[in-house]
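Our consortium's second objective concerns turning raw sequence data into structural hypotheses that experimental partners can test. To show how far this objective has progressed, the report includes one record in full. It was chosen at random from the queue rather than selected for favorable results. The single chain below, 460 residues long, was entered without modification.
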Amino acid sequence: MKNKKLLLSLLLSVFLLCTGQAQTLRKEVHILSVNDMHASLQNMPKLADIADSLRSLYPGLLVFSAGDNRTGDPLNDMYIPAAYPMVALMNQIGFNATTLGNHEFDSKPDGMAKLISLSNFPYLCANVHPDESLGIHLNPCKMFDVEGIKVGVVGAVQIGTHGMPDTHPDNVKGFVFEPVNETVARYDWLRKQCDVVILLSHNGYEDDVKTAQQMSWLDLIIGGHSHTQLDGGELHNGVLITQNVNKLKKVTHIQLMLQRERDSAPWKIIDKRAENIDVRKHKGKNNVVADMVRFLSNNPEFQRVLAQVVSPLDTYEELGSMMCDAFASETGADVAIENYGGVRYGEKAVGPFTVADVLSLDPFGNDAVMMEITGDELRRMLISCCDNDGHNFPYVSGILCDVERDTKDSTKIKKLVLKTPDGKKLNLKKKLKVVTNSYVASIADSPRADQGQSINRKTA
């Protein structure tokens, strides 16, 4: 009898152990995320190989972009149709979704509509509403099924000081924009319908942190726009935030571990991890994507040499000042202005300076605008440009600028003194011929008698 009781006890223990193991279920969701690729065509074969390698381990891998896929390489941006190479390569790699970055608007509405129609992946952006006549098909959100795990993804793009993304106003005609957090908050219903909720955000790191503080129902924010290099990811209010620098130097592999106690119970995330992958150091490449890049890059006109760099240019300021000197020299202007965000790389080695170098330095295709304004109007215009370009002071030629920032708020300019090149104070009543690009002319909205006219020349 003792032996029978012992046997029954052992069988019961084994049964409870087995059923306990069966009831606790675990699954993983793996994501490869990129942001601000800016048409880095040459790194796409390596990105494709990274995606292939992760898919071999995790067949349900999701590949997401946080926007600004285009604008940066003339081989891509001046292709016909514009920016098609990046779309073709993203199709081949197998992207699952992207949000809009502010530079997706550089194609203007007709170009954006064409690119979206050629894409095999959806564009998710809840706070952008195009007029139906534009034929632009955006989705605010989308749900993905990863081996039974429901993943809800909502997208949003930053809204600048003029109530639109940071692009030329002509690029956004026919669009209505809403504030990011106000819009994203309306998608909290995803929490009840999905096991994982993700925000694809082209909003910048600091604003992503604010979003996380307000919306703990999000599990993950895949960020972009500010090109902030995070060490894997950061947890804020329980929300994991990821972001990398631009031009595909690094990407992020995100791992979410989920668990539930029984078949009918909801899945819960029990662990979140993110690791950076250095694309530049990655040894492998996808040969099909490499062949596509070679084919799409076959334009010898871009390699035509315009000048020789005899001394290395090591900073954005040097290159921005060089651009302004060129504007002034070519147009005969007294002063030239280039916005801080208009200079797209910060170093150029000794050697040939090609058409591609010029178009990569300023890839926006803006018109040159000439205006005749007083020194005081110029001073106000420079402050306004700074306020509306991420609080970064523009580059100039023909004048010297003494900028004093407010000690309590470094984003504000307390005092700006303009001087002539020989160091004398500029006569603020004197009229000057000022040349800038059409983007600066539009965002620098300070009062001036002459708003400027296009001189039918491009700034690059």
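The partners drew two points from this record. The chain has 13 helices and 22 strands. Confidence is low (pLDDT under 50) at residues 12-21. Both points have been shared with the crystallography group to help prioritize constructs.
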